[in-house]
Amino acid sequence: MPTDIPSDAAPQHRSARTDRDVLSRPLGPAPRPEVRAAGARLSPVFEEIAAGAVHRETDHVIDHDAVTALRDAGYTRLRVPVEYGGDGLSLAEFYPFVVALGAADPNLVQALRAHLLWVEQVLLRPAGDPLRDRWLTRIAAGAIVGNAVTETDNAAGQVTTRVTRDGERWRLDGTKFYSTGSLYADWINVHAEGPEGTSVWVRVRADAPGITMTDDWDGFGQQLTASGTTVFRDVTVDPDELLFQQYSSEASHAQALAQSVHLANLTGIAEAIVRDTVEYVRHRRRTYSHANTALPADDPQVQQIIGELSAVAYAARATFGTFVDQLEHVQALVAAGAATEDDFTAIDIAAYQAQLAIAPQVLRAATQLFEVGGASQTSRSRGLDRHWRNARVLAQHNPLIYRARLTGAHLLNGGHRAVQYTVGTAG
């Protein structure tokens, strides 16, 4: 799965190619016209986003313009079928765009993660389903979906947010945290408890009366994902937007699918580490009296670090590409109604293994990059620390120690079930 973004705008031949061009050249068959067209639209948007990434982090800019530019260039509809107005990309064609956005600014990948996952959920609805038709049409027209799932005052498995019948109307009440991306969104996908303890998902307009959103996420990384608090007070719900569906008891590939966006984002960060470190060394003129050469770019020890960082990015791409192939296979089985619990278990374990292979190496690379320079490399104006901070927060969502234990336990004794885990307060 090449992570380069094909583009019709890119020249087909160059009079001279550098070794760096050859190393980054995509392998495999030529991309379909739809993929090349999407690349032509999105590549300049990614470049502009990357150019402003450090400024946004330094000044804490919730950049609605960047999300609008992504939407207008088609990022939010890449997976929507052509007949609805999307690009109709496969998962393998789609994920290089997520990786590329992660390299430009991982905050925006995370901010749009709930949207991407909602698209996948809608795509798996049966043909002719009114919800499927309605939402694919909305997304193709530019609607963006955020999320409100996690709570901080609940026990594990418990949901305190409620959807209730109030006379002739339905109402939504509750408080959510980690509402990632909702400040950027037109709609919010909310998990709540319905009548008689049922599990219900409901979409409400982000600007509906009774909704208050606060950008109070104070993590040291992924600071611009708008992962703050959302309060719902007597919010009117459209009955057509109620979806009664169990959250955790049914085996599925949902957890692996959700993890795929994190893995794409980490892979993008690995790419950004190489890009930014190479750029720093290439322009660096200061050196040490005990260095090997007058210029850092000629120093064999600095060159070694660059090579090792590039190997991490290569390994992340390769591991993630293998995982995407497995995920696409299981998704096809789900669409055909042929997936079994064994299939769900296998892709769940594959997601854990990919996490364990990618996350620690990217974190190591985000520290190792500082071996190529001096104190000036730590300047806030360079923002190089953001790579470690962002990767650390992404890895922190799903603690690796539990993923390693679950993988080892299954390999030894079997019995793993791919159900959605829950988080809550003991007691």
Brief account:
The protein has 427 residues and is an alpha+beta fold. It folds into three domains: 19-127 and 134-143, Orthogonal Bundle (Butyryl-Coa Dehydrogenase, subunit A, domain 1); 147-244, Butyryl-CoA Dehydrogenase, subunit A, domain 2; 254-413, Butyryl-CoA Dehydrogenase, subunit A, domain 3, CATH 1.20.140.10. It contains 13 helices and eight strands.
Whole-number mean pLDDT = 90
| Integer tally of domains | 3
Between the first and last Cα atoms, what is the distance in angstroms? 45 Å
What's the Cα radius of gyration? 22 Å
CATH fold descriptor of the largest domain: Butyryl-CoA Dehydrogenase, subunit A, domain 3
Q: What is the H/E string?
A: HHHHHHHHEEEEEEEEHHHHH
Helix content: 40-55%
Features:
427 residues, alpha+beta, Butyryl-Coa Dehydrogenase, subunit A, domain 1, Butyryl-CoA Dehydrogenase, subunit A, domain 2, Butyryl-CoA Dehydrogenase, subunit A, domain 3, 3 domains, 4-stranded mixed β-sheet, 4-stranded antiparallel β-sheet
Word description of this protein:
The structure is a single chain. The chain has 427 residues and is an alpha+beta fold. The chain has three domains: 19-127 and 134-143, Butyryl-Coa Dehydrogenase, subunit A, domain 1 (Orthogonal Bundle), CATH 1.10.540.10; 147-244, Beta Barrel (Butyryl-CoA Dehydrogenase, subunit A, domain 2), CATH 2.40.110.10; 254-413, Up-down Bundle (Butyryl-CoA Dehydrogenase, subunit A, domain 3). 48% of the residues lie in helices and 11% in strands. The protein contains 13 helices and eight strands. The chain has helices at 19-24, 33-51, 53-59, 64-72, 91-104, 106-111, 113-123, 130-140, 254-283, 300-335, 341-368, 385-396, 400-413, and strands spanning 145-148, 162-166, 169-176, 187-193, 199-205, 211-214, 229-237, 242-244. The protein has a four-stranded mixed β-sheet, covered by helices on one side. A four-stranded antiparallel β-sheet has the order 2-3-7-6, with no helix packed on it. Strand 2 and strand 3 (169-176) form a beta hairpin. Helix 10 packs antiparallel against helix 11 (341-368). The longest helix has 36 residues, at 300-335. The N and C termini lie far apart (45 Å). The model is unreliable at 9-25 (pLDDT under 50).
